[in-house]
């Protein structure tokens, strides 16, 4: 008989995240296990691509940011559940699918950037408060239809109901200093240039701006404030991972999921992208810790993903971006 060559141990990852953000993780995994990681970085269209490839898809894992994006892959029946004690231990209930289809890796909070000069301590307390007329002409934000803002509106619906969330979106629109435009960093630049006093953004952009010579001035003009929902916590979103239905290297893929949720990997990842690790007993990077402690909202993110169509309806019906 002809001796068959040993199959190379590998795992294939489809990712919306930049490969350089993942490199420290994939390198550490290969070093620990000898399993090679192939990353295909997609700009968009992950669901379409997986559908087109069907049972022949080379992808074992999908890695993405934002609950709606990962839920989209699950809702299209492109994933399989993973039962693992290791994953259960590493990932708190709010940050994984109750049925095991997706698992969170790191979290980010959607917070308020406030002008150090023009906004006093304690002036911003809740998300609900952002609709207060006292902010008229003082708030900047990116498009209401961006996934990060839709997730926030979904959380508003979850906590306060559809009608109250719609009223809130109308109220926030009435306070805007300018039409929604640009990304989260562009809003902080707006505060720095005096166009607005507060903006809505994700925590990790602070780290990114501080590391960019041109944007450091913008970052230095603001401080991070963690609002909460009335009766809730600070709004969280995730980067997460799911096992594909067709996974050709299933065992290796599950090993990689367990590695990615391990405290060691979580801290590497959180250090690289200024996010919060979620495994019990892990610590964020020193810079991230310096932004202060907060209480995360407890809602399971799957519940928010299901409210996304209603959130989009609200944003469009109040003509938020108009």
Walk me through what this model shows.
With 322 residues, this protein is of the alpha/beta class. The protein has helices spanning 19-33, 46-53, 67-75, 85-90, 147-160, 162-175, 184-192, 204-210, 216-220, 250-260, 263-273, 286-289, 301-306, 308-317, and strands at 10-15, 36-41, 61-65, 79-80, 103-115, 139-140, 198-202, 222-225, 236-244, 276-277. Strands 1, 2, 3, 4, 5, 6, 7, 8, 9 and 10 form a 10-stranded mixed sheet that branches. Helix 1 runs antiparallel to helix 11, helix 5 (147-160) crosses helix 6 and helix 6 (162-175) packs across helix 14. The longest helix has 15 residues, at 19-33.
Largest sheet, in brief, is: 10 strands, mixed
Give the mean pLDDT: 95
Question: How many individual β-strands?
Answer: 10
Number of helices: 14
What is the beta-strand fraction?
15-25%
N-to-C SSE series? EHEHEHEHEEHHHEHHEEHHEHHH
SS content category: alpha/beta
Write down the Rg. Answer: 20 Å
Q: Outline the low-pLDDT stretches.
A: none
Question: Which term fits the overall shape?
Answer: globular
Report how far the terminal alpha carbons are from each other. 72 Å
How are the SSEs ordered, and which strands pair?
Layout: E1 10-15, H1 19-33, E2 36-41, H2 46-53, E3 61-65, H3 67-75, E4 79-80, H4 85-90, E5 103-115, E6 139-140, H5 147-160, H6 162-175, H7 184-192, E7 198-202, H8 204-210, H9 216-220, E8 222-225, E9 236-244, H10 250-260, H11 263-273, E10 276-277, H12 286-289, H13 301-306, H14 308-317
Parallel strand pairs: 1-2, 1-3, 6-7
Antiparallel strand pairs: 3-9, 4-9, 5-7, 5-8, 5-9, 5-10
Helix pairs in contact: 1-11, 5-6, 5-14, 6-14
